[in-house]
Design goal:
About 45% of the residues lie in helices and about 10% in strands. It is of the alpha/beta class. Helix 4 crosses helix 5 and helix 7 packs across helix 12.
């Protein structure tokens, strides 16, 4: 199992509705030549070319760039300034070059249109007035380059930083000052052949790939691994990432750790909540239960919620992640990482991004429990019962347990002063 993906496949005609190929940009001219020859040889047969819009792809791009900002954001899910920064980055580094008919800016815009609208190849052909082969070629080219630069944008946390989300909030500081982010798994739609479908059937009985990701408290991805089948438990994916150097997992130094949910063991550099413990912060008069653990779980979940917010922004910005179709499996592994690169790029260069602003200002409720048997699609997998919360509890580390107990007691003591 590897998260290393390379483009593959070929597209050989204008009527195909897939992105699994590449061809020469001269396909547009070739199609027009075929049309002219057919009209000369068979005058009785009336044929109409596919791309007859009054606007060319370039003119369509200029219309969006010079138009109202809402049109740009609604269609490509980013501001005009952020888009130009992204396109210029590719052009300045030489990773993308202008084609004879398709500029670097239009190439990037084609990619964003597909991932932001979950557009098919035929829909994209109509939008940009290029053959499906040309659309597929440039989508693959931009996706591949985003994947290749992922290491520059999806980087391990700054181990020496205490994030303002922690430092500026008395609920979290100084208790969680060693926390560098949150880790969880999430499912992205996978389109696989029927003979390969069974391992990809996730909890909801649809084919998915299980993606492991880490984020910081600025809601930027700091790690992502794709390609695991939907039936595989999150904890197994994490163990593979940690134990196999090929996955380049960011191991924190001593004293630093990630927050995880109850589906993972409380050990090493991972701090999980107390299992089988609800929290009802709004009902302090409730009798029974361990209120110290409940309060710790509430604070833990409120901070760990950063990964859920990050996943939410990522998926809402790029609907293709909810229904990937007509791509070979290798490219299906690349697309989430390419989208994560754009996600981080926007966070770095667009301070007024609408989706990030809503996530920062909105009220995000945490569930009433952190027990993976009760909540959370990403917390447990029905097809992998061996990785239940009981199994995770058996793997808990004594030293990390003592550390968690110390945080629990300090939080409770300070909250009752």
């Amino acid at each position: 199992m590897s998260n290393s993906c390379t483009p593959m496949g070929s597209d050989d005609g204008c009527d195909h509705n897939s992105f699994d190929g590449s061809s020469s940009e001269d396909e547009d001219d070739f199609m027009m030549l075929q049309f002219v020859l057919s009209m000369q040889q068979s005058p009785a047969i009336q044929r109409t070319p596919c791309t007859t819009s009054a606007l060319t792809g370039h003119e369509r791009m200029v219309e969006f760039l010079n138009g109202h900002y809402e049109r740009m954001h609604n269609r490509f899910r980013m501001t005009t300034n952020c888009f130009m920064r992204l396109a210029n980055m590719f052009e300045e580094t030489g990773r993308l070059t202008h084609g004879r008919k398709v500029s670097v800016q239009e190439q990037v815009m084609i990619f964003l249109y597909v991932v932001a609208q979950n557009a098919t190849c035929r829909t994209s052909r109509e939008e940009w007035q290029h053959s499906t082969s040309t659309i597929s070629r440039y989508f693959t080219l931009v996706c591949t380059h985003l994947y290749e630069v992922s290491g520059q944008f999806i980087r391990e946390p700054n181990w020496n930083t205490v994030y303002s989300r922690i430092h500026d909030d008395m609920r979290f500081f100084p208790y969680f000052e060693g926390c560098v982010g949150a880790i969880d798994g999430t499912h992205v739609a996978a389109n696989v052949p029927k003979h390969l479908a069974t391992p990809y059937l996730g909890r909801k009985k649809v084919t998915t790939q299980n993606i492991l990701a880490a984020c910081d408290f600025d809601m930027k991805f700091t790690y992502m691994m794709t390609g695991w089948e939907g039936s595989v438990h999150d904890a197994r994916v994490l163990r593979a990432a940690m134990n196999d150097p090929v996955y380049n997992f960011p191991h924190p130094p001593p004293g630093k750790y990630f927050l995880v949910d109850a589906g993972y063991a409380n050990r090493d550099c991972f701090l999980s909540p107390y299992r089988k413990t609800n929290y009802h912060l709004n009902d302090r008069r409730r009798q029974g239960g361990d209120k110290k653990k409940e309060l710790f779980n509430y604070r833990h979940a409120s901070l760990r919620n950063a990964i859920e917010r990050t996943f939410g922004i990522w998926k809402n910005r790029f609907p293709i992640l909810k229904m990937i179709t007509n791509f070979p499996l290798e490219k299906q592994c690349m697309i989430p990482i390419a989208c994560a690169v754009v996600h981080n790029f926007i966070k770095m260069h667009a301070e007024e991004d609408e989706l990030f602003r809503e996530a920062m200002n909105g009220d995000y409720d945490v569930p009433a429990t952190d027990d993976p048997e009760e909540v959370g699609e990403t917390s447990t997998r029905a097809n992998d019962v061996g990785e239940s919360s009981t199994r995770a509890e058996n793997l808990d580390d004594f030293e990390m347990g003592q550390f968690r107990d110390g945080l629990k007691d300090a939080i409770w003591r300070d909250s009752n002063r």
